[in-house]
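Reopening this one. Same input as before:
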Amino acid sequence: MNEEINLLSDNERIERIADHYKAIIELLGEDTSREGLLKTPMRAAKAMWYITSGYRNDARATLSQAMFEHEGSKIVIIRDIEFYSMCEHHILPFFGHMSIAYVPGNKIVGLSKLARTVDICARKLQVQERLTTEVAEAVSETLGAKGVLVICEAEHLCMKMRGVEKQLSITETVDYTGVFKNDSSLRQETLQTLKR
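Same output, byte for byte:
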């Protein structure tokens, strides 16, 4: 990131983003002085700042806040964590849900931290493939899990609103680490459980 931008406060960055939105709206042929659009550039800038909050948060630090010693669980599964992200190719939303399974080492994590991790990784310009891997790696590395398996299913507005305009398409990505790489029967059993 360029040095000048690094020196700006959050409010200064949001102001600049609003200026760019105003210019874009005008380039599209709209009148930004009309009543309905007067506050739109700032609203859009604040929305984009929120939607991309993943750039200003750390998934590993979030997971580290609620780790607990525990032995005995064979596998922990949390299903259908909803998320919203932005396609880095068209800056259009993609959204869906993610399921995470992990085999603990000697630590477990508070379940809400897994959901927060998904949000942090999703709230930036992303591709679904990288999003899935980032979640799997963050959970695996931070918890020292014996294995992590992540399934992500999403709908992409870049495929629905433009381009091929396929309304019913769903994209699924899977990533896994550790024992899920080495034990195909465990991987298949877990995938079947997650897809129920």
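So the earlier flakiness isn't reproducible anymore. For the record, The longest strand covers residues 76-87.
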